[in-house]
Design brief:
35% of the residues lie in helices and 18% in strands. Helix 1 crosses helix 8. It has one domain. Strands 1, 2, 3, 4, 5 and 6 form a six-stranded mixed β-sheet that branches. By secondary structure, the chain is α/β, with parallel strands linked by helices.
Length: 210
């Protein structure tokens, strides 16, 4: 059952096109809906996050392109964390990753949202850790919020800054873990169309199989 769900997420195929060796597609879809509605996937991620490795946390965001057929979902675009950008409708996926490329926390936001604001729900995962992010996150507000949680900040300062904050180049090299996570996850519009539902508890508005 879980293998069938992973196959759909990985390939982005419609539920009805699930290969027969996985069993009846309707059974897999029904179980998927129930687990989304119960918050099972979020609890599983939280459990994995409790066992995160090391003191380093890498943070970044990735865009999820919304297919034109999914641009008008039941419950409205805001309920599915959709936002209009220059390239059309997008959703932004924010991720916190540990030192061995494993996701500790995930959050969804509308595509146009500023990266530090999109990562705000993930702040509890950063408390007391070394936080590695790129210079796109270099803002006084973001730095201040991290320091309040007891996090140690490693952000390359923008070239326009009058005050250049110190950051460790050696430590910053470890930020590739979050890039590894996105690459290994094969983050595509098709696979994350379903992931959006499970992360945000929007199972009630998740579209029926087509």
């Amino acid at each position: 059952m879980v293998s069938a769900m992973c196959y759909v997420l990985r390939t982005g195929i419609p539920w009805r096109d699930l290969p027969s060796e996985f069993g009846p597609w309707s059974s897999v879809y029904t179980r998927w809906r129930r687990w989304c509605g119960s918050g099972l996937w979020t609890r599983m991620l939280a459990e994995l996050g409790d066992g995160a490795f090391g003191k380093i946390r890498s943070v970044d965001c990735s865009h999820i392109k919304i297919h034109q057929d999914a641009a008008n979902p039941a419950g409205g675009q805001a309920a599915q964390a959709m936002g209009r950008t220059k390239g059309g409708f997008n959703t932004k996926l924010a991720a916190v990753v540990d030192a061995v490329d494993r996701a500790v926390g995930l959050s969804l936001a509308p595509g146009p949202r500023y990266d530090p604001h999109a990562c705000a729900p993930l702040a509890p995962h950063l408390a007391g850790k070394w936080v590695l992010v790129d210079k796109g996150f270099d803002s006084a507000e973001f730095r201040t919020e991290l320091v309040r949680t007891g996090a140690m900040v490693c952000i390359p300062p923008l070239s326009t800054r009058r005050i250049n904050y110190y950051f460790s180049r050696r430590l910053y090299r470890h930020r590739h873990t979050v890039e590894n996570f996105f690459c290994a996850s094969n983050v595509t519009a098709a696979s994350l169309h379903a992931t959006r539902s499970s992360l945000s508890h929007f199972s009630a508005s998740y579209p029926s199989p087509q």
